[in-house]
Amino acid sequence: MQLAVNSPAPVKENARTTTAEATDGGVLSSLGLNGYLFGIQFFNFALVACIVWFLILKPLTKKMEERKNLINDSLEKVKQVETNLRMSNAKFQEKIDEAKIESNKIIEHAHQEAVAMGDQMKQRAKDEIALLVQQAKKNIEIDREEMRDEVKKETVNLVVLVVEKLLDKKFTAEKDRDFIQDILKEVK
Fold this sequence. Notes:
188 residues, mainly alpha, 2 domains, 5 helices, 0% strand, rod-shaped, disordered N terminus, hydrogen ion transport, membrane
């Protein structure tokens, strides 16, 4: 190494050889390339590029395309689900509104029935009270008649007793009847 560094002559020789090689090799030589090595390296590069393309990049792009399609399909499904969800929510809200309307109708109908039933019950109660009052009046009238009859009987008995005491004699049943009828006619 020292020889090569210390002696300038071999460097000139190298420069001459590269120039000679450049003239022998043509364009590649003028660029400082060895055609044989360049061809082998190009073949190696092409071989590695093919291997990388067919074994790595092609399956990778295929997988990426599949993934892209899967993501797009998923996004479309999400949009469909969101649309279905909105439609379901709208239908749900519609059903709830219908149920509220129906429940209000039922409540109103029940209220009307309750009012009607209350009116019927009031009327029945009034009718029952009127019937009870009428029956009470009849019972009072019957009791009054019974009391009159009893008072009449008692009065007749008292009158008979008083008359017997006054006359000091006993009336027969026939005389009693006649006498009582005369008194009753006068009382009426």
